[in-house]
Write a structure and sequence with these properties.
379 residues; binds adenosine-5'-diphosphate; binds magnesium ion
């Protein structure tokens, strides 16, 4: 069950196009909170939760999510709680918001990092998860650069410090608010030279491809229908069911998409030889002769100008990979909580329970198969 918490204090605005805020919540934890009226669209809140559910069935290191109830008085009395559009500034919308549990919990408030320079990348303990995350991003058509935060796991001095990578910012999975799957090779990649350097074929991604093939998506759909606030997808249960049906069908294409990505970005996969046949590929529906033609064409898919304007991922050529990792200041993104209190801790927020309607098959609130979900969607 996704935890529900109440927001108590807004600490600061975070970087990024959704203009999220770092908030202290009723369970004593810090969350990066995205609001319903964020500039990227309301559906990205649903995307974050769906992506987290899907990533966890593939056993990928996704951050813990929560549904954060933000009371209108907290917004009214906090200057920072605004969303800036090009033409105006509006208050954040009160109500149920998406929260990503901050990876530096109190009382230590250690720094976490958005980027690590190339030489520190070897200190990331779970760097072996990156190929699995690529499987996930190709499957879900994440139309953004893969974003990770790096959490220090010990207190050693600079070059010896160890890190753990956590997946964040999954709002542009399923092509953001569009809920379709454009298959652009350019997106969903973590652009760092050593990210995929040990990948030597689809065999390196086999554990995740196997989990993907075996995943029971109907269980995830049921959780999504029950636990995601329905206003995040404008109560359009049919669209949600259709999304899962597409995800189900797309499982077969993922091996193919990975090979196309390898062909489009050979510099990112130095250990992956081009072969016409792979046992893993054969098991996951790859047809060798279909691959070649589409790969290079799709490398140059233009970025979505709207998303770029809102601060989404910039276009980075492979030749700029090193520049990217060094240019970004490896900076502290969290500050210790200030002592001052907002005075809103006692605000009691009416809990809006999200109750899903009964599906026609499989008992109350449950769909037992994706076929049933599709029937529900077409009713
Ligand atoms: N779980 C988390 N723990 C720590 N920092 C986070 C977490 N989630 C997001 N952040 C930080 O907040 C920033 C904004 O979050 P992100 O999900 O990338 O939003 P946006 O869609 O606006 O880019 C990230 O760049 C990262 O620095
Ligand atoms: Mg981001």
């Amino acid at each position: 069950m996704i935890p529900h918490v109440r927001a108590l204090e807004c600490i600061r605005r975070m970087c990024g196009g959704s203009q999220s805020k770092l908030m202290r919540c009723s369970d004593g934890e810090l969350y990066v909170v995205k609001f319903q009226n964020n500039p990227q669209g309301i559906r990205i809140l649903a995307n974050e939760v769906i992506a987290a559910l899907l990533a966890s069935i593939l056993r990928l290191p996704v951050g813990q999510t929560a549904i954060v109830d933000v009371h209108r008085d907290l917004i009214r009395f906090t200057d920072k709680m605004i969303i800036e559009y090009p033409e105006c500034r509006v208050p954040c919308r009160a109500g149920l918001c998406f929260g990503s549990l901050c990876e530096t919990p109190p009382p230590f408030y250690r720094a976490v990092y958005d980027f690590l320079p190339e030489e520190l990348f070897a200190n990331v303990a779970n760097v072996s998860d990156l190929p699995g995350i690529l499987v996930f991003d190709k499957w879900t058509s994440n139309m953004d650069n893969r974003q990770l935060v790096f959490v220090p796991t010990d207190d050693q001095a600079g070059p010896y410090r160890q890190y753990r990578a956590v997946m964040v910012d999954n709002g542009h999975c399923f092509n953001g608010t569009k809920w379709n799957f454009p298959d652009a090779m350019r997106w969903g990649i973590y652009f760092q030279r050593s990210a995929y350097k040990t990948v030597n074929g689809l065999e390196s991604m086999e554990p995740w491809l196997e989990r993907l093939a075996a995943a029971r998506l109907e269980d995830v759909l049921n959780r999504a229908l029950e636990e995601i606030p329905s206003e995040w997808y404008r109560c359009n249960r049919k669209a949600l069911c259709r999304l899962f049906a597409k995800l189900d069908t797309r499982r077969k294409c993922v091996g193919d998409l990975l090979i196309q990505t390898r062909r489009a970005y050979p510099e990112l996969f130095p250990a992956w030889p081009l072969r016409s046949y792979s046992h893993v590929g054969a098991r996951h529906g790859v047809e060798p002769r279909r691959i070649r033609s589409r790969a290079l064409a799709s490398r140059s898919v233009p970025p979505d100008p709207k998303r770029q304007a809102s601060g989404g991922g910039a276009v980075i050529g492979a030749d700029q990979l090193d520049a990217l990792s060094y240019a970004h200041v490896v900076g502290r993104i969290l500050h210790p909580l200030r002592d001052e209190q907002t005075g809103h801790d006692q605000v009691s927020v009416p809990r809006e329970r999200v109750v899903s309607q009964a599906a026609p098959t499989g008992g109350p609130n449950q769909v037992t198969t994706l076929d049933a979900a599709l029937k529900l969607a077409s009713n």
